[in-house]
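Model: You mentioned two targets. I'll fold them one after the other.
Researcher: Yes, keep them separate.
Model: Target one:
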Amino acid sequence: MAIIGYYLFSYLLGSLMAGFLVVKLLGNKDIRVEGSGNVGARNAGRVNGKVSFILTFIGDALKGAVVIMAGKYFGFSEEIILGGLGLAILGHVKPVTLKFKGGMGISTFIGGMLAFEPITALVIISGFLILYPFLKSFTFAGLGSFLLIPVSFYFLGAEPKVTIITGFLVLVIIFIHREDIMDRMK
């Protein structure tokens, strides 16, 4: 029963959309009809400037971090905790609060992974810095750096289930970005 409550909490927290609130409060705009219509950090910045980007990124990253910290606090296994992060990402991408039209999940994923394993920050940054000069795309370099997270977990000796679930979450993030990836490959 506690796990079901944790998972419900994770999804509902993921459904609280920082971009919608930030742009509404700072710019008196509805981000869903501005720019790309996406309620994530990138569109918040495009629609309302750098401060909106930063606040939205932090707000969405905190959702992932809070889910991870709550799972650790209640003593759930790493597999259960990563499942909670997956549901927070689902809540961000398909939020019940905004008729299931949300963001792309990057900020929530990053916040959750940093709370789960802080070394992830070095993996993401290093991977991005290595890949960007070759790929010349923030999207491809960022997504490529995420692929290094389960690899790093493997070499750090994480449980195989943790490495597999993390790899699955990375593939979900890449799948969510499939249209953006296809557009950039044209």
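Model: Target two:
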Amino acid sequence: MVKLSLTIILFLISLLTILPAPAFYLWLLAIAADEFSWVFIAVLLVVILVSFKPSAYQTPTLIVSFIALFIFASPIARAYFISKKIRNDMASAFGDHSVASQKPFSYPGLFKSNISIPYSTVSYKKTDKGNLTMDFYPSAIPGVKPCVIVVHGGSWKSGDSKQLPELNSVLASKGYHVAAINYRLAPSYQNPAPVEDVRDALAFLKEKAAAWHIDSGNFILLGRSAGAQIALLAGFTLKDPEVKGVIDFYGPADMVWGYSIPSNPLIMDSRKVMEDYLGGSYNTHPQNFEKSSPLLYVSNQSPPTLLIHGENDVLVAYEHSKRLNAKLSTNGVKHYLLTLPWATHAFDYNLNGPGGQLSTYAVMYFLKSVTN
């Protein structure tokens, strides 16, 4: 009975790889089910081996175990099939570029350890409530190199530059400077304050270009979630010719539409989050929602854009990226949408997982294409 109960629990967890999580803590579990699925597979294999010994409930235990095993393996299988076409798809979008010694996805890559590049924290802007800082990861490859500015997530009201630092180290190891910035947070500050902070971080890095060996003509903005909205808005409105591209990890691109379709309240009160950032509801401040919608600022002059989103995202609907993808297409902007059918919000918590590997490859390919 214990083995059967365990397999039923594992089966229910496996469903999070194909269905949206219905509550906050199940969303966190969904990240584990999607991106650490090999752990659950290993447990199930042990259960299956033990269950071949005749015992009570042997048949139902084996049946449920094999079904759960198949479902847990699905993100890995789907990542494999996406990896077979991602290079050609990105070549069509951005031109043919080689990403040296990097595969889009590999099974051994699931078990790799992360690297860590030392960084320094420096102030880049004074505000009425103290200094804003950035974590600067110098390129591990000598020479004048492009710089990626990373804008963290956190519903515009939390989070900091230390969030999900693993990709920063990967980029630095591949020859890019990385500046992970802090910005002014809601509700004390509202849009466009964070975009202004990105602008000032750009100006600061340009001043430091000679001393820090930054290629001042090659900046890329990368944001996650709320940070992606900020990065997109900055990329589309600042019109800085030195910003060569924008990378959007599961960001809200249409704030007007997003307010009309709130998230599951058991996950997040998305309307309250947006109201804190924009000064009130859409009914009372419609212009604020419009001014904060990156989608409305897309033009044929917008920089190349990489969108990365999971279809099972329960915090920021995948529809945001579909809408932005269509608008970029209409305006003839170079872009690519990497869709991960199984993935939820913050899937890149594990860079070695199926979604983490594919997204890292896409980022590296994009950087190679826009900084050459």
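Researcher: Noted. Anything on target two?
Model: The first helix runs from residue 2 to 14.
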